[in-house]
Amino acid sequence: MIRVTRSAIIDAPIERVWAILRDFNSHTAWHPVVAESVIENDEPADQVGCVRNFTLKDGNHIREQLLALSDNDYVSTYCILDATLPMQRYVATVQLKRVTDGDRTFWHWQSTFDTPRGREQEFADLVGKGVYEGGFEGLRAFLRRRPGAPAVRTAGSETMATQGMVVSRFGGPDVLEARPLEARFPAPGEVRVRHSAIGVNYIDVYIRKGEYRMIEPPAPIGMEAAGVVVDVGDGVTHLLPGDRVAYACAPPGAYVGVRTLPASQVVVLPDEIDDETAAAVMLKGMTAEYLLHRTHRLRGGETVLVHAAAGGVGLLLCQWAKALGARVIGTVSTDDKARVARAAGCAATIVGRDYRFAAALHDATGGRGADVIYDGLGQAAARENLEALAMCGHWICYGHASGPFDRLPVESLGQKSATFSSPVLFHYTAERAALTEMAQRTFEALRQGTIRLDIRHRYPLSAAAQAHRELESRSTVGPLILLP
Amino acid sequence: MIKVYTSSVIDAPAEQVWARIRDFNGLPGWTPFVAESRIEGGLPSDKIGCVRNFRLKDGGMIREQLLTLSDYDYQCSYSILESPLGVDNYVATLKLTPVTDGNRTFAEWWAEFDCAPDREGQLSRDIGQGVFQAGFDSLKMLVRR
Ligand SMILES: NC(=O)c1ccc[n+]([C@@H]2O[C@H](COP(=O)([O-])OP(=O)(O)OC[C@H]3O[C@@H](n4cnc5c(N)ncnc54)[C@H](OP(=O)(O)O)[C@@H]3O)[C@@H](O)[C@H]2O)c1
């Protein structure tokens, strides 16, 4: 048996180093020999038992399984399941310890394994020098690129002054007023984020009008933003000052420059996703993710009707559903939007402003109807949706831009053995494990080009009322963002 | 029970640092705060169970008993039998680990003990900084290459 041990001092606080090393899927960001890393079966990267599939820069492949992970002791243990290299019974442990003298980190990396007789030295060097020492240097270089602010917490109670757009009373776009606000020092479990871009969503309109009673005016609205961590409260281990982050969650309050909110809903952004894209995709992308994979598991060959197909969520649904092999038909209000929707994967579009689409849909599907309807329209489209649905179809009403239902259309479902769903993103993201999975799958879809974002509508934060006016007038295409 | 943990990096190979500190009777030779030390009953200073009896430069007397000593792990632990500190059930461990990168030493020193609640903060600072970190600082000077 060969035993390889290497250790080093890393000139960064242990929380900073651990935030990187505890992520079983982080090596492509910092390790010089790893070209590609994928966690199999879409499991979260901190799921004990998950398997990562490495492609090394020299072309070799290695599958490794996470055996143990302790945030308390800063220990991660893993083994090789199979590899194109002759290494057997490889078990390795990464352990960090705090160097209190200078707030640095001691990193200990050790493994035991077997290899064919005569090649012991070759593999001891490969692992010790190539993988472990190379890894130390790689992580140091990564930290120089992404240093983060020092993780020292200052005396504690100071608040930061900022500006925000506040709903002064429930009503039209003009009730949005710019006001000075404060972002307090994060309490335990909280994080303070300096926003660089803020997403506008239709739910902001419902809340502004008072249809969803999620605030008591005067209060800022907004569910989605991207930015940089200013500081974190006690007990927050996955974020550090200086991290680029994004979120999409309740409670409302994102239309501000700096904000303090629960850290559990905040995720670190991959380097390649810029802040504007993140602010435009967190809420809408994770919504498309769960609508296509969770509320309904979309299968190739299904016919899908997407309403507001050129809208923020609509465009993502079209692109992603097409990539999953579905036949996508979209409704839109103008020819220009129809062109955009077709470019995003719609096989056909139905153009109109009056919620009459069932007849055209039956024409386009040989009378069969849609297996799945993604409906963000609500009341005005309800009757036509029932008509447009195929036998045993699934009608998913996830919004009501045309107004809320007078009453739910339950009785009529029996005419077609139809299923009706009324899902809400925030219920799907309530658990941190599900949230990270949904965010990672959305980032991956962006990386792969499965979904693409074209941000046509940018406003200064102070012009939020204008953004709302345009969103409600049905004149926008794709996502809208506010810039503080 | 409270725990005080101090760690540092010493710029010399672990075996060299260990040679300095493994002698349980050797505190006057490497710490800045011990004036004189003897082992009670004439026992060898690496015999488990032996008691060192030492006088601090500020005058206080302390008796400590060696609980474990491992040349293999570069680690020893000991308990306080008598001291003016006002601590109970005090057990401390000193451990060295080689840092292969740069052939240096990662040194850890920690203690667990009971004391009056209102003295926890002060004692943690006195022990963590005044004893453990001060010891490391003087080791750093002694082994300087
Ligand atoms: N449940 C959830 O988890 C969840 C999450 C995110 C979004 N949503 C819902 O998804 C829908 C889309 O959200 P989004 O933010 O991406 O907005 P959006 O689709 O970019 O904008 C709304 C679109 O709805 C269409 N629309 C039809 N009738 C309308 C009316 N009377 N007033 C205004 N718009 C009308 C318009 O497209 P045309 O002009 O082409 O018809 C308009 O562009 C909304 O209903 C939202 O509430 C739900």
TrEMBL record, chain A:
Entry GO CC: cytosol
UniProt entry keywords in alphabetical sequence: NADP, Oxidoreductase
Keyword DNA repair among UniProt keywords: no
Gene Ontology MF, one: mRNA 3'-UTR AU-rich region binding
Domain of life, per lineage: Bacteria
Pfam families linked to this entry: ADH_N, ADH_zinc_N, Polyketide_cyc2
CDD domains associated with the record: PYR_PYL_RCAR_like (cd07821), QOR2 (cd05286)
SMART domains xrefs: PKS_ER (SM00829)
Start and end residues of each Enoyl reductase (ER) domain: 171-482
Protein name: Enoyl reductase (ER) domain-containing protein
Organism: Reyranella soli
UniProtKB/TrEMBL annotation, chain B:
Regions that span the bilayer: none
A Pfam family the protein falls into: Polyketide_cyc2
Protein name: Polyketide cyclase
CDD domains linked to this entry: PYR_PYL_RCAR_like
InterPro entries: Polyketide_cyclase/dehydratase, START-like_dom_sf
